[in-house]
Amino acid sequence: DGGITQSPKYLFRKEGQNVTLSCEQNLNHDAMYWYRQDPGQGLRLIYYSQIVNDFQKGDIAEGYSVSREKKESFPLTVTSAQKNPTAFYLCASSADLSNTEAFFGQGTRLTVV
Amino acid sequence: QKEVEQDPGPLSVPEGAIVSLNCTYSNSAFQYFMWYRQYSRKGPELLMYTYSSGNKEDGRFTAQVDKSSKYISLFIRDSQPSDSATYLCAMSDIGSNYQLIWGAGTKLIIKP
After folding, report:
1. Between the CA atoms of A33, B84, A85 and B102, what dihedral angle is there, to the nearest 10 degrees?
2. A chain contacts of residue B92, beta-carbon cutoff 8 Å
3. Pairing state of beta strands A103-104 and A54-57?
4. Which SS3 state, helix, strand or coil, does residue B93 take?
5. CB distance B49–A100 less than 8 Å?
6. Could you tell me if B11 lies within 8 Å of chain A, comparing CB atoms?
7. How far apart are the C-alpha atoms of B81 and A65, rounded to whole Å?
8. pLDDT tens digits, residue range A48-101?
9. pLDDT of residue B1
10. CB-CB under 8 Å, B41 with A90
């Protein structure tokens, strides 16, 4: 089945540690996205990539980093510079730039302990 | 003022009722309008998208866009308990490189 796989589903991090969230898609989509979702707020864009080896900052990129070495993979690293990392993180992909049909993974819940 | 406003709810209705979910927006350049459904602790899934103004129907779901009023709606007919979820609106335009701008979501509860 085609889709997007995020792992792990739950992640706990100690303050001061970097953690990496995995996102893999087998939809052959060019564009991939990382969003953060907090209670009572809409999804906020962290980073996006429209092609391999290229990515752009979204609205809240500070404290995060990404890479896009393969078309199917777009990992997100939450660094110790991110002051409030506890959130639900969603990865998405779309076939083209119009982004009219974005497919989402099941999300990773990150908690700082 | 947020670019996209959406009543967070919760909105609680009896099974079989017609549900109306709404979003207002401020950017008149938006051209693409989407509705996503999100179950608890899951990723959103696309229900419908509409380009520019007008209506679009898919089974029990109807999406309406009124660009003159900067207002979009999602109607659910014959609502079922399985429709209980959070409904997110999103919109985009070519000027922002099609980046989606999201509402905060409305939590819908269908009571059996």
Report:
1. 50
2. 98-100
3. unpaired
4. coil
5. yes
6. no
7. 40
8. 999 999 999 999 999 999 999 999 999 999 998 888 999 999 999 998 777 778
9. 67
10. no
State how far the Cα of B112 lies from the Cα of B14, in Å rounded to an integer.
Answer: 6
Pair of tokens at residue A23:
């996102």
**If pLDDT is split at 50, 70 and 90, which confidence band does A1 have?**
low
Q: Is B8 near chain A, with CB under 8 Å?
A: yes
Peptide bond into A8 cis (omega under 30): yes
CB-CB neighbors (< 8 A) of B41 in chain A: 88, 107, 109
pLDDT digits 0-9 by tens, B52-106: 888 999 999 999 999 999 999 999 999 999 999 999 999 988 777 778 999 999 9
Of B6, B43, B101, Cβ closest to residue A104: B43
Q: Label residue B98 left, alpha or beta by phi (over 0 means left) and psi (-120 to 50 means alpha).
A: left
- Find, in chain A, the residue whose alpha carbon is nearest to that of B99: A99
- Backbone angle region of A85, left / alpha / beta, with phi > 0 → left and psi within -120 to 50 → alpha: alpha
Exposure string of A92-109, with b = 16+ CB inside 10 Å and e = fewer, is bbbeeeebbebbbbebbe
Tokens of B89: 């609106």
Sequence-distant (6+) residues with CB within 8 A of A68 are: A32, A49, A51, A52, A53, A54, A55, A74
Q: Cβ contact (<8 Å) for A100 and B34? A: yes
